[in-house]
Design brief:
One of its GO terms (cellular component) is cytoplasm. It catalyses: [(1->4)-alpha-D-glucosyl](n) + phosphate = [(1->4)-alpha-D-glucosyl](n-1) + alpha-D-glucose 1-phosphate. One of its GO terms (molecular function) is pyridoxal phosphate binding. This protein has 3 domains: 91 residues, no CATH class; 362 residues, Glycogen Phosphorylase B (Rossmann fold); 324 residues, 3-Layer(aba) Sandwich (Rossmann fold), CATH 3.40.50.2000. It is 49% helix and 16% strand. It contains 33 helices and 24 strands. The strands form 6 sheets. A 9-stranded mixed sheet has the order 7-10-11-4-1-12-13-17-18, sandwiched between helices. A 6-stranded parallel sheet has the order 21-20-19-22-23-24, sandwiched between helices. Strands 14-16-15 form a 3-stranded antiparallel sheet. Helix 11 crosses helix 12 and helix 22 packs across helix 29. The site of ligand 26V has 22 residues, from helix 6.
Amino acid sequence: MIQTPPLRDSVLRHLIYSIGKDPEHAILEDWRMALSYAVRDRVVDAWFKATARTYETGAKRVYYLSMEYLIGRLLEDGIVNLELLDEARAVMDEMERDLGLVLADEPDAALGNGGLGRLAACFMESLSTVGCPAHGYGIRYEHGLFRQQFVQGRQIEHPELWLSQRHAWEFERPEVRYRIGFGGHVDTRDGVTRWHPAEEVEAEAFDTPVVGWKGRWANTLRLWSGRAIHPFDLDAFNHGDYTRAAAPEALARTISRVLYPDDTTQQGKELRLKQEFFLTRAALCDIIRRFDNQFKDVRQLPEKVAIQLNDTHPAIAGPELVRILHDERHVPFEEAMEIARGCLSYTNHTLLPEALESWDESLFGQLLPRHIQIIDRIDATHAEQNPSRTQSMRSDHQVKMGQLSFAMAHKVNGVSALHTELMKTTVFEELHHLHPDRIVNQTNGVTPRRWLLACNPRLAGLITEAIGEGWVDDLEQLEKLEPHVQDAAWLDRYTAVKRDNKAELSNWMAQTYDLHVDPDMLFDVQIKRMHEYKRQHLNILEAIAHWQEIREHPELDWTPRLKIFGGKAAPGYFFAKDIIRLINDVAAVINNDPVTNKYLKVVFLPNYNVSLAERLIPASDLSEQISTAGKEASGTGNMKFALNGAPTVGTLDGANVEIRQHVGAENFFLFGMTAEEVMERREVEDHAKKAIEADPRLAAALDLIHSGRFSPGEPDRYHNITGNLQGADYFLVCSDFTDYWRAQREVDKAFADTQGWARMAALNTARSGWFSSDRTIRGYMSDIWGAGSLL
Ligand code: 26V
């Protein structure tokens, strides 16, 4: 074994020999790369050990298939997990570099849209921390989620260029390539059916090691990149037609060029379906090659391989695995189905009808002619085995990916207790009836390494001083903080930590955006994708109403509040974009009102991403989780806030329900209708009108928007929003407004009692241990995958 040199030597060696710079001429990026390589060396040591051990033991492996991984930056993560923070800081101090600036120089890899992608990233880290042999598969998008800019309050999208910046984390594997076919035809000879694709591209592997806590284990995130099989059309080249000669490469690369930025509506685009098959087939080829290397009989697959589908996006894994087993390995069809089902399981992340995947059967059949036949056979077999069945995997000329995933999975899971119950009574009602043991719950979690230890070092330090460091990979140990919460002196220190975090954020906002805010205000934060069901417009309506009240009585002792928003809207989701613009317009008016602006300010920070979340969450006082009940499958931001000592104002939706159970009802500001009440209220005629009539504050706030108070010169700018709220108001903003208002006034009162608030915040931290993604992963291992830890 090679002896690991001190970090300092390693950094200098890499600076000189890997980067080719001497310390005198190195720029920030060079130091960042040198430090990354030095840390990476140690990650690789852990990685090789883990790989060898998995191979030796012949243990079952977990494969996580996801179209998205919202990983964020990796250098700090590696440093924290390998406990190199002090050493890294000392090295950078010696080189007269600020470690914080070096870490922040890394591009933020945004290969995902939101919750689903971030969950995949937390899961990868937890899989390594708990020592479960696992591989993540995804796509190496050249461009991740767009960068958001505001121009006169409106969202402008810019391409994101993370790959054009240097980073140290991936290893190209040119020898690991698979052919991925599309289109063509199917024929049957001597009873054997074969698919002959018309077009083929290659998927090339890029590996990123993912290290767990203390470097005890590391797994692989393998991302696929599109390549042409013959990068050059030689014939065209020899004829001097260079554009045509390069065309195959350009076409192949298109597949992994860009992440689809719309996570709200399924659009049925051909390229998206190609991406899904590209990821899925490349992953399956890799899984089977690895299995064949070590084992003999494909009938053993379910014993050795667990494949988790992150939503329906890789649902084609069912038919493709059956195709490989049946068409290529000649396993009888029904047995092939059984083997595939034994390996596969599926996680549902949304019940919103517009986000459920279905594909036009003619598009599907053109691109995947053999798979559509297999789907029909799976469907027929399933119908035969379940004669009372009425719903098919194909209806209205569409292929239903949810139905397919359910039928091809041995377990199907929801992501919070409420969501799982709703799955049983709504989208999967019939299938649940036929397979009552298939649906299980695995409430989401977040990794405490990134979301507490790394992003909130002050709080992490205070906790470790009180209860030791065991909490880092056993988060429920946070309950040992309870006695300290009863100690006034300790609570003062807890409050000081929060205050320091808020001051740091205020300084950063002043430097970065010239926004000047008082760190003693209540920092009220709503950060998430923009969506009507998440109801950012409910939040801004309340701000308008509150502003009016302060204006009427500026002499009263109001609790000063800063409302912070962050979030991107899908480029084609015009309503969500209007809400962004409205919030920015309202901010411009309210922040410039000299009568009220010591009591109320509103800011919308542009380009919300993982790194910004890491800055904001430790500095938050209040977590806004205000979705229409029944619509947010789980939420994971909600867990990060609670863990970092920001109590929730929220509805009984998704994991809010479980957060409230854990932290205690008295430490959670509940408001709004339940999921059941929501369904009933929708049936009430003119529910919005009635709610508006009953609440003059709401009526006045809507009138202000409608009158053009926030859009001078263009009074009708927000008539679409006001019309929607006064009309159908599908997400029941008006019906929940009054209770939301009441809850916010309770927040004001509670925050004014500094000790009481500190107790509430600290109890949120002490009682959030259950929301670790380590707990979630152990749940998947035992209830779904049948996989063990090799630690
Ligand atoms: C949907 C679609 C629709 C088709 C086109 C591309 C695309 C990309 C992503 C999605 C995902 C939407 C589902 C989603 O992100 N759900 C979120 O999952 C989180 C993790 O389980 C959960 O905490 C959130 O509540 C849930 O909204």
